[in-house]
Amino acid sequence: MEKGKDRAKMVDHIVEDEAIITKIEHKSHKIDSLIKQYRPVEALKTALDGSPPKTRDERCKSANWHVVHRALMAIKAVDLMFSNLDPEYYDILMKYLYRGLSTGDRQTCDQCLKIHEKLTQKAGLGCIIRALSDTVNTV
Amino acid sequence: MIILIEMAAIAVHQFADCITCHAWSPDQSMLALCPNNNEVHIYKLVEEKWERIHVLQKHDQIIVGIDWSKSSNRIVTVSHDRNSYVWNEEGSVWVPTLVILRLNRAALCVQWSPKGNKFAVGSGAKTVCICYYEQENNWWVSKLIRKRHDSSVTSVAWHPNNVLIATTSTDGKCRVFSTFIKGVDAGKPKKSGSGSLDAKFGEQIVQLDLSFCWAFGVKWSPSGNSLAYVGHNSMIYFVDQVGPSPLAQSVVLRDLPLRDVMFVSEKLVIGVGFDCNPMVFAADGTGLWSFVRFLDEKKAASSSGRSQFTEAFGKFYGSSKQGTSNDRGRAGVHDNCINCIVPLKKSETAKMTSFSTSGLDGKVVIWDLKNQEDLLEYL
């Protein structure tokens, strides 16, 4: 009985995760066209919107990281970005910056550090604390 | 030596290298504190000078909770040695009575109930002990709330009705329990705004899942209609209509996390923590909570008599960070984490405007909000 329940739960999870992947694919197309139109901040907002921290599935997390990464790397003027980015995005952006820094890739780290400096000025140390202390809703 | 500052901080005194907790006598003429060891030191203000008049020695390990009953002049202490003592003043000596808590982990916090006939102890054993005095046996009895907590209980707070307690825990939750004890709580308490009160002992009234990491420092508002607690993720949570369908607000902090909170009035909350400077939160007309400002303005730092070396060191320390806003919290009266805030109230009916804080820097600071014009409307 318990096993049956567990299996049903697992199937539910798989269906949910598939739905998330489909959504991320949709987002990915939108982000590409926004970047082509030189609207990187809009692209970043789209990438951060509906990012899937609640799921434990690594595939969903890394799929979303790839779209966020593309949008992040398209940002040229960091100051300009912050004048168009609402504070509600700060916490989730910080989490993705730390994910970027953990890749160890030179270009990604350069970009993440540049944004990290500005974001810390804008959002304060509290924002870093929230990114580091949250072990449940990881990105 | 007392340094007077024309700011919210009206008195500062260095008692030790570090203070784990402190409490005031009912008439506020004496102060009990633990200087980060297994002793409680009691000080009295004699001719503008703090004199140590008693040292209470009975615990084996560091004392982390002291509360001085408002109604009965009794002191309760809890320690990492897993024990609790109730101290009675007999003549000029404080006589301890051991309270067997039946814990296998450290006790972490303690508070007397508003009537002073019970006290609650939070512990590292995922339990809360509700202790009460049994006249016939001349003995303090400890009744355990074993269920629900998945981790250490970091803070306990009594509702004004003497029955409900709120707890915070390192599993991130804030919970409200009934502590109704037959024979101790005479009759069924009157129903107030906080849900049903005819619950049995240990029954959970509500569990709040707002935080995803350690929760600390829960307190009730004076009416008992709201409560506030803090998370180690630089958030503070305000909960109205505590009961089956609570209304919760989360306020995001710009700065380092808080360790403890206190309601000054229904609309004003003070939070203290790792920023070394009390933070003021206020509710507007619609009940929306927000951060107002730090209580200790930067001006206070220059008048608090620091040496040139610490000034220079402060500059060096500040310059290693971006912007000036980040080191703002560290330039105040406290220069290390504040972990304890205690109300100072002249009488039951009087408006509370004053409170004291202590922390890892070994200072006790007394604050008064009376001269803070921008905050008067919330008092």
TrEMBL record, chain A:
Component of the Arp2/3 complex composed of ARP2, ARP3, ARPC1/p41-ARC, ARPC2/p34-ARC, ARPC3/p21-ARC, ARPC4/p20-ARC and ARPC5/p16-ARC. The keyword Cytoplasm applies. Pfam families: P16-Arc. Belongs to the ARPC5 family. InterPro entries: ARPC5, ARPC5_sf. Keywords: Cell projection, Cytoplasm, Cytoskeleton. One of its GO terms (cellular component) is cell projection. This is Actin-related protein 2/3 complex subunit 5. It is found in: Cell projection; Cytoplasm, Cytoskeleton. GO terms for biological process: Arp2/3 complex-mediated actin nucleation; regulation of actin filament polymerization. PANTHER family: ARP2/3 COMPLEX 16 KD SUBUNIT P16-ARC.
Automatic annotation (TrEMBL), chain B:
Gene3D superfamilies: YVTN repeat-like/Quinoprotein amine dehydrogenase. GO terms for biological process: Arp2/3 complex-mediated actin nucleation. Its main location: cytoplasm. The keyword Transit peptide does not apply. It comes from Tagetes erecta (African marigold). SMART domains: WD40. Keywords: Actin-binding, Cytoplasm, Cytoskeleton, Repeat, WD repeat. WD repeats lie at residues 56-88, 146-178. This is Actin-related protein 2/3 complex subunit. It is found in: Cytoplasm, Cytoskeleton. Component of the Arp2/3 complex composed of ARP2, ARP3, ARPC1/p41-ARC, ARPC2/p34-ARC, ARPC3/p21-ARC, ARPC4/p20-ARC and ARPC5/p16-ARC. InterPro entries: ARPC1, WD40/YVTN_repeat-like_dom_sf, WD40_repeat_dom_sf, WD40_rpt. Functions as component of the Arp2/3 complex which is involved in regulation of actin polymerization and together with an activating nucleation-promoting factor (NPF) mediates the formation of branched actin networks. GO terms for molecular function: actin filament binding. GO terms for cellular component: Arp2/3 protein complex. Belongs to the WD repeat ARPC1 family. It holds the Pfam family WD40.
